[in-house]
Amino acid sequence: MEGVRLLEEALAAGVPIHGAVIAADLERTARGASLREDLEKHAVPIEAVSARVFAPLADTDTPQGIVAVIEPRRWTVEDLKLDAASAVQVIDGVQDPGNVGTMVRTAAAFGVTATLALPGTVDLWNAKVVRSAMGALFSRPAFPVTWDALEGFLRSRDIPLWGADAAGQPLDERPSPERLAIAVGNEGNGLSSAVREAAEHLVAIPIASHVESLNVAVATGILLYHFRP
After folding, report:
1. Which is it for strands 66-70 and 17-22: parallel, antiparallel or unpaired?
2. What is the radius of gyration, based on Cα positions, of the chain?
3. Which of 199, 194, 191, 198 minimizes the C-alpha distance to 166?
4. Which of 70, 96, 127 is the last residue of a domain?
5. What strands lie across the sheet with 86-92, from one edge to the other?
6. 3-state SS string over 130-146?
């Protein structure tokens, strides 16, 4: 994990941090210096290195002088606690890490219970996903699941599965149940056949006829706002 903001979020969420590597750039700002103090207070091992040693460790174009090794929580569907009104986000084969990170962040913003990623979806702990999620991965359940595990979870909790599809019924024409799992698929291929066949309903976001489609992260934001608990 890289960057001041993400380390601040990880500390605030109580995520275990096994060690950090810092360069001189970190303490050139008051915020960076404060972060180092906080890491030391939490007994996080710190290794100070030269800019030359630090450079290959960083993944961003303008590094902030800190990278760290964290231990994310390993969630399972058995850990999820649902209220009477709950929404679950299902990501079905979306491969762009920036989009997926934005989708996770959006789910957190609208109070979605969990983000479940089906096979074919980019690794949720890909560095760009983590950065785009802006700390949401530390505070909300988000983890990969197999189709069988997802199907069993939805059945056991009596949660209907709906899918987003351009050919579906307009979003505002169908009232939604209190509990709902909403699946969004790959921009190029749409929903997988397994999700499409299992979905009770397919819904679409009405858009202007001269526009072919929406970016998947934008579409997800509209859907999750509409279906927010």
Report:
1. antiparallel
2. 20
3. 191
4. 70
5. 142-144, 114-118, 86-92, 179-185, 161-170, 201-204
6. HHHHCCHHHHCCEEECC
Cβ neighbours of residue 81 under 8 Å, at least 6 residues apart? 113
What average pLDDT does the segment 57-77 reach?
93
Same domain, yes or no, for 161 and 119?
A: yes
pTM over 0.90: yes
Beta carbons of 33 and 90 less than 8 angstroms apart: no
Structurally, how many domains does the chain consist of? Answer: 2
For position 199, what pLDDT does the model report? 97
Do 52 and 90 lie in one domain? The reply is no
pLDDT tens digits, one per residue of 93-146? 999 999 999 999 999 999 999 999 999 999 999 999 999 999 999 989 999 999
Cβ atoms of 76 and 219 within 8 Å: the answer is no
Same domain for 121 and 198? yes
Here the CATH number for the domain that contains residue 146 is 3.40.1280.10
Mean pLDDT throughout 20-28? 95
Instruction: Please list the alpha-helical segments (H only) found in 97-158.
Output: 97-109, 127-133, 136-139, 147-156
| pLDDT tens digits along 182-198 | 999 988 889 999 999 99
Residue 229, pLDDT score: 80
Range of the domain at 101: 77-226
Taking a C-beta distance cutoff of 8 angstroms, is the pair 60, 4 a contact?
A: no
Contact 99, 216 (CB under 8 A): yes
